[in-house]
Amino acid sequence: MKFKNFNKSLVWIYALLMVFIVSFQSCEDDKIVEEQEGWLRVLPLDLNFDSKGGTKDIYLVLTGNVNSEEVSYDIAANGKDWCSVVLEGEYLHVTTMPNYIEAPRNTVITLDYGIYSRKVPVSQEQAVGDQLIGIVSAKATSEETEIENRGLEFSYDSDYETYFNSKFGAISEWPFQIEYTLESGYTLNRIIYHPRTDAGNKWGAFNEYEVWVSTEAAPETFTKVGEYSRGDANFNVTVMKFETPLENIAKVRFDVYSSYQNRISCAEMEFYQDGTTNYDYSGIFVDDMYSVLKEGVSEAELKAIPDDQLRNLALDLFVGEYSSEFRAASYRPYQNPSVQSAINKTSTYSKRDNPTGIYVEEGEELLVIVGDTKGQNITIDVQDLNVGFGSAKSYPLLEGENRLMMENSGLVYVQNITNDNIPLILETDEDKELAQAKTVNIHFVNAKVNGYFDLAKHNVEDWTRILGNAVYQDLDVMGLRSHITWTTENFKSYNTDIVTVLEKYDRLVYLEEEFAGLEKYEKMFNNRMYFHIDYNGASPYATSYRTAYTSSYAEIFCNASRFEARLWGPAHEAGHVNQLRPGLKWAGTTEVTNNLMSLYVQTEFGEPCKLLVDGTYSVAKNNIIAGNTPHATSDFLSKLVPFWQLKLYMVDALGKTDFYRDIYEHYRVTPNLTTNTTTQGILQLDFVRQVCRISGLNMLDFFQKWGFLTPVDTTLNDYGNKAFKITQAQIDALKIEINAAGYNMPHDNVEDIQDDNISAYN
Length: 762
What we know:
By secondary structure, this protein is α+β, with helices and mostly antiparallel strands. Strand 5 and strand 6 form a beta hairpin.
C-alpha cells in the first residue's frame, strides 16, 4: 500500500514539473513575439481590396534604433502574380491587380529586420459574375390562358421549353405591349430574348419592336432605349446590349409592331447586369478572337493569366502546339432565308450555311471568344440529327468571352443572319465588301474538331485529310449552292469523290432556280439548299430550311457515279422547296408542279425523261383525254404531263426559252388571287389565262383536252382533304376573255408532243 502511494506522489510531482516548464516556455515565447513585433507597428494591421484592385498604403512606425533602410520585405508565393509592394520611407505601398476570378484570394507580406519579423495579411474580394435580374411581375396586352395555359409567367420561369403566347388568333391592333417589373438595385446592361424552341410552328417570334424603360425614381415614365428589326420568321436568340448601362431600372416594356404570323410568343426574356470578371486580353493577343499572340509577350505574362483555359491556350500558342483550324475562323453574314422566300413565294432555303467543324457533348462547357459583332445578333445552333433537326438548341453569343453549358450534343453552326441582300456567291468587290462589313471572328477554344469540307476553299487532298480525321457521326460538305450533311461512315465506305458529288448537287440547285427564272430576274437564292440524313424518317421529305432523306439514300449522296440514275429523289424534294405558291401550287398539285423541276434536272443531266420511260404519256391521255375527265385527278404523274408538254412545245419546239421563266415571274410579282379552301379552282383557270397571255397563243383546245376546262366539284386528298370546284360559268367566261384577246393559234395536236417527237412541232 505504501508503494502505491509513493507512485502516486511521483506522478503528481512530474505533472507539476511539466506545467512549470510549459508555462515558462510560453512566457519566453510571448516575450520573443513581443520583442519581435515590438520593433514595428503597422497601420492598418491588414489590407482588404475589392475585386477591382488598386493601391493602398501601410504606415510603418519603427521603434528603437531600427534603420528603415535595412528593412526588407517579401510576398508569399501565392501572391506574387497579383500583389506587389514598394517601400518608400515610412510607407509601404501595396498594389493588387484586378481579380477576375469568382473566388477571393489571400496572401501575406513579410517584413524582416535582422532576427525580427512582422507579417501583414492581404486579401482581395472575388469578382462578381453576370447577374440575372429577377422579375417581380409582368403584364401583356393579352395572354392565352383558356384553350392552353400560355400565360406571361412562362416567359420568365427559367424554362426554355415552355413559352408565353398572346391570346390565340391573329393580332390586329399594334403595338402589342409586354411590361416587366424588375427587382430593384440593379444596373441593366443587356436583355436576351429567346423565341419558342419547341417543335411546333414557332408562331409569334418578334420582328419589329421597341424597348422602353422607366427608373425607380419615376416608374411610370418610360424612355425609349432601342429599336429592333429581327426579320420575319427569325427564331434565333436575340441579344440587346446597351452601350450605356441603364441604372436603377424599375420597368422594361416591349412595344411590338410586327411578328411572325401576327402572333406573339416568348420562351424566355432575360435581363442581365454585367459582372466584373472580364480580364483585358488586348496586351496578350493580336486579334479579337485570341488566336495569335502579340510579339514579345513573355511566358511569365502568360502564366499570370487568371483563367485556366485561356492561360493554357496562350501557353500552347507560345510553344506552337495549338491547332486553330476550324476552331478559329471568320463567319460571313447570310441573308435570313425568309427574305428571299417571301420574294420568290417559295419555302425557305438553309439556315446552316455557317458550319464550324466543331462538335460538342451534352454537359460540357464550351468557351467561345467572339470578336466585334458589328451590330449583328450572333448565335450558335447545336444539331444532332439522331435526335432530329427540330431538336437543335440555340445559344446566344456576345463580344468577348462566352462560357456556354451545352444542353445537347451535336455539330455546331454559327447564325450570322441579316436582312441585307448579300448574294450567296460573292463575285464582285461590292458584294465582298457588303459581306465583310458584317463578318464576325469566332474562336471555339480547345473545342473538339470534326471538320467540314468546303468546295470553295478545299481540294481533294484536303478531303482525304478531313474525312480521315472526322470523328463525329455526321460530316458537313459544302458546295457553292448546296450543303449536304451525311454520315461520316458512308462517306468513308463509298470512298466518296466529294468534289464531283458537290459539283453535281450545285448544278441541280442551279438548274431548278434557272428554270424558275430566278437567274433571269436576278432573284437567285442567297442561301444554299440543304440536304441531310434523317435517322428517324420513314421517307424523304421537304420542309422549311431543308430536305431530308433516309439512310437508304446514301448512294445518291456518296457515290458520284450513281447520281444521274437516282437524282429524281433530291430533285423532287428540292422542287417542293422551289414550288411557287399559290400560283403554281393549288389544291391537287403539291406532288405535281414540283416535278416540272425534277424532269428538267433529269433531262439536263442527259437522262431520258421519266414520262417517256414509264409510258406515262399514253396512260395520261387514256385517263384524262380519252376519258373526258377533269384534270383534277389523283394520278400525280398523269397530271404532270400537260405541264411538261408546255415546256416541250413552247421552249424546245418554238424556242420561247423564257416561257416558264416568265410564268414564274408573273406569279412572283403579281398579288395573289384571293382564295380559300373552296375556291382553289380559280388558280387553275388563271394558269390557263397566263399561259395564253405569256405565250401569245390561244391554248384553249389544249387545256380543254387535258381537263383544265372541265367542270368539277370534288375533294382532293392533297396532304389533307381539299375542296376543288370549277363551274361551267367560270369556264365560259374565261373562254370569252381569251378568244377576245386575238392570240395566234398553236398546232392542232399539242397534246401529242413528247420528248421524242419535238421536231414535228418546230
